[in-house]
Amino acid sequence: MDPTHYILGGLAGLLPGGAAAYSILNSVLKGKAPAIIKEAEQTGDHIKEKKILKAKEKFLKLKEEHNKEIKTRIAEVQSLEDKPKEPDKAQAQEAKLQSEASGMTVKSDKEELKEQILGDARAMAAQQTQEIQDEARTRANQEAKKIATQSSREQRVMVESDQVNEEMADQISFNILQRIMNAMTYPGQVKVTVILETRAVSVAK
CB 3.0-4.6 Å disulfide test: which of 11, 162, 183, 199 passes with 148? Predict the structure, then answer.
């Protein structure tokens, strides 16, 4: 007998058993399918949540770094903008002073300078006059005391002409005479003469 017949016969015998096994396996898979699908969904959801959480953490970290960088940049820009303000302020002040100075007329400047010079001259003249008068009074007192102890009929006082003029010399003479009259009793007449002494001085260097 041809071997082919044996093979075909064996296959024919296997067909009913194979169909039954397929049917049983298919039933088992159909029964477990919902559980497998649910487990797969739960696993997928868990993985999804982990990925979402990780993505949120990364986003927050990037956002924080971005905000820090923005703040740093803003601070740098603000610093650069603030630096020119100080020179600008100084320049504005200088421009204001120049404007005020240019607003003054030459005439007002001259008048102000003239008044200042005259004021200084008056103050200096008053001070020198006071010093000369004080010195004249001191000399008058000294001469009066000297005359009170002397019996001379004429007293001469030498003063420098660059410090005492003729009017002041007359005043000195009168003051000395008054002190003589008040300090002593004298016979006859006493004459007081104030001499304006003029000196010529040359210095060799």
Answer: 183
Rg, the chain, Cα only: 64
The tokens describing 14, both together, are 């296997």
For residue 68, the enclosing domain spans: 1-103
Angstrom distance (rounded) from CA 89 to CA 84: 9
Residue 46 lies in a domain: yes
The string of pLDDT tens digits covering residues 118-159 is 777 777 777 777 777 777 777 776 666 555 545 456 667 777
The dihedral region occupied by 195, where left means phi > 0, alpha psi between -120 and 50, and beta the remainder, is: beta
- Torsion angles phi and psi, residue 8, rounded to 5: -65, -35
156 CB contacts (<8 Å, ≥6 apart)? 193, 194, 195
In this prediction, the residues of the chain whose per-residue pLDDT falls under 70 are: 1-46, 48, 80-110, 141-155, 183-190, 198-205
The pTM (predicted TM-score) of the whole model is: 0.25
Last residue of a domain, one of 103, 128, 147: 103
Residue 111 lies in a domain: no
pLDDT of residue 48: 67
Answer yes or no: are the C-beta atoms of 125 and 141 closer than 8 Å.
no
Give strand pairing partners of 155: 192
Indicate the number of domains in the chain: 2
Inter-CA distances, 24 with 13, 19, 30, 93, 174, Å: 18, 9, 10, 102, 161
